């Protein structure tokens, strides 16, 4: 009887464990749906809501390519920009930062909104206004006052701050260079969202200070001449263009059709 009892107890235990596993999986799926409905995070940040979606997989491929550059010695500071406005650079930077934070379990990722003219990242992330890059570069706050953590593990964030009167001058200052020098040892990747290249000089200034630049292009809308001109401006500043990201592609995501940028 002892062996039979042991076998029955073992079978019951295994059945309970299977049921617990199913419940946990169901709960995890419900959390994803609940976050999408209740979270203040913008729905276009797909890796945050659904890390296994088609869009998320594309960003995973991109992060793999970044980490494999230069035989594994990847660029640490990367500017994300575009030729002109409305090409999806900010959402791209956010999705890339989230994907990197999911891939890099121990090292931390830092995302900086350096678009001090029309920065929107606090809106995308659903956080309130914070003192950020503009206040720091103006000497009004200390570094530890502008870095804060958001509801994404391993990802820290610096907002653009209030709109300054001379953003390009602040970005070209020694304080900006010192900032990157201070932050570089602390993070595995530092992604910097910048204004578009052609309308203003901000992206070119930052491009000359970072390890590499990624240029976002919107499919079916960005003119080839614009992309070429942006490349020329970056090359003149001796910025290293790592590559281009094509946005504006339609994917099917469960429960809705989503044009992600």
Can you characterise this structure?
Mean pLDDT is 82; it is low at 18-36 and 252-261. Helix 3 (54-68) crosses helix 4 (89-103). With 261 residues, the protein is of the alpha/beta class. 44% of the residues lie in helices and 17% in strands. A seven-stranded mixed beta sheet has the order 3-4-2-5-1-6-7, with helices on both faces. It has ten helices and nine strands. The chain has two domains: 1-38; 42-259, 3-Layer(aba) Sandwich (Rossmann fold), CATH 3.40.50. It has helices spanning 2-38, 46-49, 54-68, 89-103, 121-125, 133-137, 167-171, 174-183, 202-207, 224-236, and strands at 77-82, 109-113, 148-149, 155-158, 189-193, 212-218, 241-247, 250-253, 256-259. The chain is globular and about 65 Å long. Strand 3 and strand 4 form a beta hairpin. The termini are far apart. 37% of the residues are buried.
Concise summary:
The protein is an alpha/beta fold. The chain has 10 helices and 9 strands. It has 2 domains: 1-38; 42-259, 3-Layer(aba) Sandwich (Rossmann fold).
What attributes characterize this protein structure?
261 residues; 9 strands; Rossmann fold; 10 helices; 2 domains; globular; two-stranded antiparallel ribbon; alpha/beta; seven-stranded mixed beta sheet
Query: How large a portion of the residues is in β-strands, by DSSP E?
Result: 15-25%
Q: What is the mean predicted local confidence, pLDDT?
A: 82
Distance between the termini: 65 Å
- SSE succession: HHHEHEHHEEHHEHEHEEE
Tell me the overall shape. Answer: globular
Question: Which residues sit in consecutive blocks of at least 5 with pLDDT less than 50?
Answer: 18-36, 252-261
Q: How would you name the CATH homologous superfamily of the largest domain?
A: P-loop containing nucleotide triphosphate hydrolases
Tell me roughly what share of residues is in helical segments.
Answer: 40-55%
Query: Strands across the major sheet, in which order?
Result: 3-4-2-5-1-6-7
Overall tally of structural domains: 2
* Derived structural class: alpha/beta
Note the main sheet. 7 strands, mixed
Task: Assign the CATH class of the largest domain.
Answer: Alpha Beta
Supply Rg: 22 Å
What would you say the CATH architecture of the largest domain is? 3-Layer(aba) Sandwich
Number of strands: 9
| CATH level 3 topology of the largest domain | Rossmann fold
């Amino acid at each position: 009887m002892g062996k039979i009892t042991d076998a029955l107890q073992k079978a019951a235990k295994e059945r309970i464990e299977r049921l617990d596993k199913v419940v946990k999986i169901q709960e995890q799926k419900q959390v994803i749906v609940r976050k999408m409905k209740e979270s203040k995070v913008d729905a276009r940040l797909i890796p945050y809501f659904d890390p296994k979606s088609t869009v998320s997989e594309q960003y995973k491929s991109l992060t793999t390519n970044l980490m494999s550059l230069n035989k594994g010695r990847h660029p640490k500071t990367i500017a994300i920009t575009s030729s002109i406005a409305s090409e999806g650079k900010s959402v791209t930077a956010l999705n890339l930062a989230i994907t990197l934070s999911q891939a890099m379990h121990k090292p931390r990722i830092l995302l900086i909104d350096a678009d001090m003219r029309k920065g929107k990242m606090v809106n995308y992330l659903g956080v309130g206004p914070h003192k950020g890059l503009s206040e720091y570069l103006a000497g009004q706050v200390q570094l530890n006052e502008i870095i804060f953590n958001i509801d994404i593990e391993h990802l820290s964030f610096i907002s653009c701050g209030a709109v300054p009167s001379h953003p390009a001058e602040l970005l070209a200052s020694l304080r900006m260079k010192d900032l990157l020098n201070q932050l570089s040892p602390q993070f595995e990747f530092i992604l910097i969202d910048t204004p578009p290249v052609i309308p203003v000089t901000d992206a070119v200034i930052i491009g000359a200070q970072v390890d590499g630049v990624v240029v976002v292009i919107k499919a079916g809308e960005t003119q080839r001449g614009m992309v070429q001109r942006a490349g020329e401006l970056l090359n003149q500043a001796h910025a290293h263009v790592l590559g281009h990201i094509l946005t504006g592609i339609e994917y099917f995501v469960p429960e809705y059709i989503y044009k992600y940028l």
